[in-house]
Design goal:
By secondary structure, the protein is of the alpha+beta class. It is built from 12 helices and 13 strands. The chain has one domain: ATP adenylyltransferase (HIT family, subunit A, 2-Layer Sandwich). The protein has a 10-stranded antiparallel beta sheet. A 3-stranded mixed beta sheet has the order 1-2-13.
Length: 309
């Protein structure tokens, strides 16, 4: 499967002009690096991501536009690799990664993780060179009406190289469920959970507990989560519980506006800004403020930890 999707992407670079043009600009992307205590945050200027970052995801706007993940509405150049009978792996025409995929469910059903978490694990296992990730509605998903994952090449997000140090320096080991090790991390900027196992079943049990807790916070609505999934001999699942969709800077007019709608990649330490003005002015204090707004509060994260212990 890994070879098939890599071949698909490289074939699509030459066969799909929109993807080829946007992909060719990635090497020239501007980057800024901010160092924190034991970890870093990188900011990428990527103007082609304006469509995703500024997407209107309210119910009225969604109902007025055709679903761009449904087969009849896709560009004729867009090809795919089937993943079982229920998912299709597509190339993202507005890439962040050097290999960037959208993994779309074959039927048009809402973005909802509970019944699809096992498929996330399956995808990670069969695509070990990629990180597979999920953005919940209200957590960066630009198509909350159509169930999908995304995936990109390993080694792009700072959290990958920093994870072990983050777990050692800022982590708290929780009581594990069977063969699933759970670590709660609070690095002063982000709150997240790390699930580790070489077996699916205990991970599914722990995830169900986390999802139930977050669903209660959202009063029965889809849990606000960003998820990063890796597989190398075992799964490592990073779960970022969220409290808010977009920071106040997204809505502010004038000089204080920053067009940023944080999603999984941003939570992984690679913040994507589509406007040059925002890239040039964003500073450490802005980053701290934005993450503090959208992430789970200390109190609620501690409640989540207490529930898992």
């Amino acid at each position: 499967m890994q070879e098939k999707v890599s071949k698909l992407f490289h074939d699509q670079i030459t066969g799909w002009p929109l993807l080829g043009e946007n992909w060719s600009k990635l090497d020239a992307s501007l980057l800024k690096h901010f160092e924190f205590e034991g970890f870093s945050i990188t900011v990428q200027f990527n103007p082609e991501r304006i469509i995703s970052s500024a997407a209107k995801v309210d119910q009225s706007s969604i109902e007025k536009r055709p679903c761009f993940l449904c087969t009849p509405n896709r560009p004729h150049e867009e090809d795919f690799v089937a993943f079982g009978s229920d998912y299709e792996i597509l190339c993202n025409p507005f890439p962040i990664f050097k290999e960037h995929f959208t993994i779309s469910k074959t039927d048009h059903s809402p973005q909802a993780i509970d019944a699809e978490f096992t498929r996330l694990l399956d995808l990670s296992r069969q695509l070990p060179e990629l990180v597979v990730f999920y953005n919940a509605p209200g957590c960066g998903a630009s198509a909350p009406d159509h169930m999908h994952f995304q995936a990109g090449n390993r080694g792009f997000m700072p959290v990958e190289d920093e994870l072990e140090a983050l777990m050692e320096g800022y982590g708290k080991s929780l009581v594990s469920e069977g063969a699933c090790k759970v670590t709660a991390v609070n690095d002063g900027l982000r709150h997240f959970l790390v699930l580790e196992s070489d077996r699916k079943e205990p991970m599914e049990l722990v995830f169900a507990q986390i999802s139930d807790f977050m669903r209660q916070l959202s009063k029965g609505a889809e849990p606000m989560l960003n998820i990063l999934s890796f597989f190398r001999e075992k799964w490592q699942i990073l779960i970022f519980p969220r409290e808010k969709h977009r920071p106040w800077q997204f809505f502010k007019e004038g000089e204080k506006n920053i067009l940023l709608s944080p999603a999984s990649v941003d939570m992984g330490g690679m913040m994507i800004l589509p406007l040059e003005k925002d890239f040039l002015k964003i500073c450490r204090e802005d980053i701290v403020d934005i993450f503090t707004q959208v992430g789970l509060s200390d109190r609620r994260f501690n409640d989540l930890i207490s529930m898992l212990v």
